[in-house]
Write a structure and sequence with these properties.
The chain is of the alpha+beta class and about 140 residues long. Helix content is about 30%, strand content about 25%. It has helices spanning about 30-35, 40-55, 85-100; strands spanning about 10-15, 65, 75, 75-80, 105-110, 115-120, 125-130, 135. The strands form 2 sheets. A 6-stranded antiparallel sheet has the order 6-7-4-1-5-8, covered by helices on one side.
């Protein structure tokens, strides 16, 4: 909470290290998980199990893009709300699995990563703004 009584929320995202110019950010955890070659060891089985957990416990956003003035149609990016502790714990485990499988994933944090276009109780979709500060954990 700030000195003037406002609550500050932290948003958390798990992303790779490559940059996607069309979106302005790195690919997220779920996209990366679809690109990892299937080799059949226990880590792939665990990755499938965790993806199944997310399928059961996280809704797909209703809105992933928005027209923002003269900038045209902009792609949104999903961030976890800092209150989604169980989801974040599962995402950290998934990030570890992906890193072990050769697809490194980092954890990012930001107070306001962009222009909010959608939210539910666990996640928020933001259209990234170029001047936002994102902390790498």
């Amino acid at each position: 909470m700030t000195g003037n009584g406002h609550v500050i929320f932290m948003y958390i995202r798990f992303a790779g290290f490559t940059h996607v110019p069309e979106v302005g950010v790195s690919p997220g955890l779920f996209w990366i998980s679809t690109e990892v070659p299937r080799e059949g060891d226990w880590r792939h089985d665990e990755l499938s199990r965790v993806r199944g957990w997310f399928n059961d416990h996280l809704d797909a956003p209703d809105l992933l893009e928005q027209r923002l003035g003269r900038r045209g149609l902009r792609q949104g990016v999903c961030w976890f709300r800092d209150t989604a502790r169980q989801h974040i714990a599962q995402a950290r485990y998934m990030a570890w699995l992906l890193t072990e499988l050769g697809a490194p994933v980092r954890e990012l944090r930001a107070e306001q990563p962009g222009h909010e276009i959608w939210r539910d109780q666990y996640q928020v979709v933001f259209v990234p703004l170029r001047d936002r500060i994102v902390q790498v954990v």
